Amino acid sequence: MRLDAGEAEQTLGYKLRLAQILAFRGFEQRLTDYGRAPRYLGLLSVIRAHPGQPQSRIAEAVALPRSSFVTILDQLSAEGLIERRPSKYDRRANGLWLTPQGEDVVGRLMQEAQRYEAEMTRDMSPEEIASGLRVLQKLIDNLS
Questions:
Q1: What value does the mean pLDDT take over residues 65-85?
Q2: Where is the HTH marR-type domain (predicted)?
């Protein structure tokens, strides 16, 4: 028998966090050969979509505090996935780019993410998926 969380079961915050933990765990467990990359696929995807943006803008985009963000960047840089260079947008800041290895890894991980997404949403209609994405975006907008 599954233990429930009582009245928390009726809150979006609890359900969202539980879904995030389960989704993250399942995705990361199937991709053990990629170092930290699966854990930071969202971050790497933002860098891929916006190469050269200053570190501070990327940190804002993924809602990470600067204190932990620098450590994560150091790790991803050590794994050869990203590089810091002077920003073309702000000469006082470093911009972030994926390395060729980073581009390759993110491309392969995105393919895996799409397969995993199909598994997670297998009993959902396209309308339900679209509705879920709209609701999540509203939550994100409200919290930003």
A1: 93
A2: 1-141
Instruction: Look at residue 91 and tell me whether its pLDDT is greater than 80.
Output: no
Neighbours of 3 (CB within 10 A): 5
Q: Which residue has the tokens 């930071």?
A: 40
Structure tokens of 82? 């990203």
pLDDT range class, residue 61, cuts 50, 70, 90: very high
DSSP assignment of the chain: -----GGGGG-HHHHHHHHHHHHHHHHHHT-GGGTTTTTTHHHHHHHHHSTT-BHHHHHHHTT--HHHHHHHHHHHHHTTSEEEEE-SS-TTSEEEEE-HHHHHHHHHHHHHHHHHHHHHTTT--HHHHHHHHHHHHHHHHHH-
The phi and psi torsions of 18 (rounded to 5 degrees) equal -65, -45
Query: Nearest Cα to 48, choosing from 97, 110, 10?
Result: 97
Q: How far apart are CA 19 and CA 36, in angstroms?
A: 21
Q: Looking at residues 55-83, what average pLDDT do you find?
A: 92
Q: Which domains does the chain have, with CATH numbers?
A: 7-143 (1.10.10.10)
The predicted pLDDT at position 120 comes to 92
